[in-house]
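Question (not urgent): is this output format expected?
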Amino acid sequence: MAQSFDYDSATRAPAADEGRTDTTPLERLAEIAARTAEETGKFANVDAILRIPVTMQVVLGSATIPVANLMKLGRGAVVPLDHRVGEPVDVVVNGRIVARGEVVVVEEDNSRFGVSLTEIVGPLGQGDS
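Got this back:
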């Protein structure tokens, strides 16, 4: 089971930014990384790290079926998944679960879906699944 942590307190901005709500959690994380790098001097160019592309997937569920049944699938076939409606979906980055969330309809375009994050999974090695 993955362990969660209090993301808001871990990424709290300095008192000067206390009232700001115009930044996303990822932007706040980038600001913290940049500030930490400047303060410690350990990273010469954090911007280069922040531009590294990663593969992100949202896993709605999975199913295990025999190859014979897979070969019988056709248009309109339904494959039951192990997640139920309303259960959180896993957000996977480069093969590792980093968060969980709820599927939502994107406001600007009702034909697209998004994920509202509800839980950030703890540091590596703590409950990876």
